[in-house]
Design goal:
The chain is built from eleven helices and no strands. With about 200 residues, the protein is an all-alpha fold. It is globular. InterPro entries: HEAT_RRP12. It holds the Pfam family RRP12_HEAT.
């Protein structure tokens, strides 16, 4: 998305605020097309690492991109897994489905299982950072915005190493105060601190 970045940079250089706002709007519009560019791209393995840095930055700073990023990640995972499994429907997005078209058909034809395997490897290599950013965002978002984040987290988790998903899970449980810092489950309820300490001592 170099064009979107160029609009963004230009918006910071112009002196007239109206022109700057117009350039920002163009940049936002181009970034909003991200899911379209994630339909069977031919450079996933080569470009996803650098793209990940932009995605994480947007997840942390730009709320207008949250849903587009979540949908795009699901696109990338779903389409490559469907090639590998020769079937559709794995961790399919509830908010966005891959539609058949002549353009997509030609793109799918250029995807081999070897290509899909390498693409999944590239996605998995960046999954730790993306999962952490998405999980942080999930906990900080209102309930109505969590659905597409949950779908994206599920897709990325499905291709990630078990050690990564375990680390994210433990971090989430600690955030919810369901386990303590050493991985022990906390008592849920109205137990006093003294009762908790006594129970730990007896374990």
């Amino acid at each position: 998305m170099p064009l979107a970045e160029s609009f963004k940079r230009a918006s910071h250089k112009v002196k007239k605020s109206v022109i700057g706002e117009d350039l920002q709007a163009h940049a936002h519009g181009l970034w909003g097309l991200l899911p379209v560019f994630c339909r069977y791209p031919t450079d996933t393995r080569q470009s996803f690492g650098s793209l990940t840095k932009h995605l994480i930055s947007f997840l942390k700073k730009n709320s207008f991109m949250h849903e587009s990023i979540a949908i795009s990640l699901q696109e990338l995972v779903n389409q490559n897994r469907s090639i590998l499994r020769s079937s559709e429907g794995d961790c399919e997005s509830n908010t966005y489905a891959i539609k058949d078209s002549m353009i997509q058909s030609s793109s799918v034809a250029s995807y081999s299982k070897k290509t899909a395997t390498k693409n999944i490897g590239a996605l998995a290599s960046c999954s730790m950072e993306l999962l952490q950013a998405l999980t942080d965002l999930f906990f900080g978002s209102p309930p109505e915005k969590r659905s597409y984040l949950k779908d994206a987290i599920g897709c990325l988790a499905s291709i990630s190493d078990s050690s990564i998903t375990k680390r994210i899970l433990i971090s989430s449980l600690e955030r919810l105060e369901l386990i303590n810092g050493v991985g022990e489950f906390e008592n849920v309820g109205n137990s006093s601190t003294t009762e908790k300490d006594t129970q730990r001592t007896n374990m």
